[in-house]
Design goal:
- Two copies of one chain form a homodimer.
- Chain A has two domains: 208 residues, Rossmann fold (3-Layer(aba) Sandwich); 109 residues, UDP-galactose 4-epimerase, domain 1.
- Chain A has 328 residues and is of the alpha/beta class.
- In chain A, the strands form five sheets. A seven-stranded parallel sheet of chain A has the order 5-4-1-6-7-9-13, with helices on both faces.
- The first copy, chain A, starts with a strand and ends with a helix.
- Chains A and B meet through helix 5 of A and helix 5 of B.
């Protein structure tokens, strides 16, 4: 079967494609486990690294998800599964509303329509976000039954796609599932335009010996999960029997609620003798105002009942990052 | 100032335009009360009756809300207020998904963009619906903080528009408000494609001496409100100081929870000596399945705090209908 990963050149997209190459198989629309023979990494930019495996064609396709024909061209087989990770991120969406609407909302709709046009109800996993929650009336702890009143355009578009995934699934046009992701750590590489970029940065940059300007106070709480558990959770959601999801196809992934100072403490515990860059608080109101709208405590009873994986603690997450990216 | 009512040829649109002609004024984007000098009733079909008043040009414009240029042509002044009532209804949306997406979602977005393109943040009131609620996990009583997991395409598009109205308002592109309407009774004229059509029909048809086939059991509960309170509530929402709405611009209007048999009892109480058509239960699973997804008890604490009007009881609602439509 074919796998299409939108946002495939991004960090999660590349990790997901590697995970799928390791697995080699996915549950096909027919309900049986089938070998993957083609993976397409679709993105607005080139993938920085080639990935390949015996017998599996891995192609990178560059294009605009806001262009309907481009998206329909990607979904050219009935035995296909789609992982929809492409998105304008939170900070980017606050700076360019129209781009967020075009990529996140129009692009998402093109993808749903392209999958609907195939036979046999292909599976589609959409990467949603905790940013679907927000607002003055948001409870201290959010969960799968909390009303979604996001206070960023990013969060709005994620909520809208969750709703559309539900309705396309209810109508039998496809078999959709949405994974509500907490902040993913530890992202390698450069900082990005996401308001959450600092959550990885405060671990990654000091580990690379680089001084880091923390844009929020150390007391800031965030709901995080490591990329290994996130990628495994996305695959787990794809593989679940759809009947277990019922009429609401979105599941909040598990997360750990931690303060930035707890992250820094864990970093110091794990790092051993490695010399760390310095961390200095330099408040950035643009970032702070977005982060303040996010929930910090996320109940994940549903994910627990459905067997989603989670790391044990921050130390484990940081150790994985060192193992995967610093000890090569 | 100018007023644009989408769905202006519909029952609520015509009643709203008459109410606005009576008032003669609305709060303009500037925050001051200004005289209305132009009302446009925009609809896909012609208005069945002409409405006019001294000094106010009332025009009917026929067109497709799914066409961007048409919608931009309507919003041709900065001193404008928009009442967005146009919608493919619930039963219609289940039968034609693509039309519901085009009219309710694309049309709504065109309207938000057209208002955004004006200066001074015009006010826009969007008619949402209790159909935004639904699903297996819906609580017995829904309210302004209940998660929206609608189980009709109609409800999905209404929820999406509520979210977009919130975000356009947050961004300062317009001053939007959403009124979540319960089932409006008693609609005059012919039955329509709404799954809720029977709720008016069970009163209207017998009053007109016509036998009525009730498509649901008499024990069915519905949340209803009379059209006078609905129209007054829509105007009240337009006039409210936006600061009182905060970051969630949608308000559930008050409603009365009644069973169909209570409606029939009230009808018999109010009707006096008028001869009624007979009511026979003839279950229609298409209607019943949609109605089963709707909430029946709706908390309206927020509407109460904000001073929204409500009728006292069913008897009052039925008496208004007789006064407005049967005693001419």
């Amino acid at each position: 079967m074919k796998v299409v990963i939108t946002g495939g050149a991004g960090f999660l997209g590349r990790r997901l494609s590697r995970r799928l190459l390791e697995r080699g198989r996915l549950t096909a629309p027919s309900g049986t486990s089938e070998p993957i023979d083609e993976i397409v990494l679709f993105d607005v930019g080139e993938s920085p690294e080639a990935i390949s495996a015996d017998g599996v064609a891995v192609r990178t396709i560059t294009g605009d998800i806001g262009d309907r024909d481009t998206v329909f061209g990607l979904i050219d087989r009935d035995d296909v599964s789609v992982f929809h990770l492409a998105s304008v991120v939170s900070g980017g969406g606050e700076k360019d509303f129209d781009l967020a609407m075009r990529v996140n909302l129009d692009g998402g709709r093109h993808l749903l329509e392209a999958v609907r046009a195939r036979d046999g109800k292909p599976r589609l996993v959409f990467a949603s976000s905790l940013a679907v929650f927000g607002g003055a009336a948001m409870p201290t702890a959010v969960g799968d039954r909390t009303k979604q009143t996001p206070q960023t355009t990013y969060g709005i578009t994620k909520t809208v796609l969750e709703l559309l995934v539900n309705d396309y699934s209810r109508k039998g046009y496809l078999d959709g599932r949405s994974a509500r992701l907490p902040t993913v750590i530890v992202r390698p590489g450069k900082p990005n335009a996401a308001a959450s970029s600092f959550v990885s940065g405060v671990i990654r940059e000091p580990l690379n010996g680089i001084d880091f300007a923390l844009p929020v106070p150390e007391t800031t709480s965030v709901a995080v999960l490591g990329y290994r558990a996130i990628v495994d959770g996305i695959v787990h959601l794809h593989e679940l029997d759809g009947d277990r999801l019922g009429d609401d196809r979105a599941v909040g992934l598990p997360s750990l609620t931690v303060t930035v100072s707890e992250m820094i403490e864990a970093l110091r515990r794990v790092v051993g003798t490695r010399r760390l860059g310095r961390i200095a608080v330099e408040p950035d109101p643009f970032i702070g105002n977005i982060v303040d709208t996010w929930p910090t405590v996320c109940l994940s009873e549903r994910a627990g009942n459905l067997g989603f994986p989670s790391e044990e603690n921050l130390d484990e997450i940081i150790r994985y990052f060192i193992e995967d990216y610093l000890e090569e």
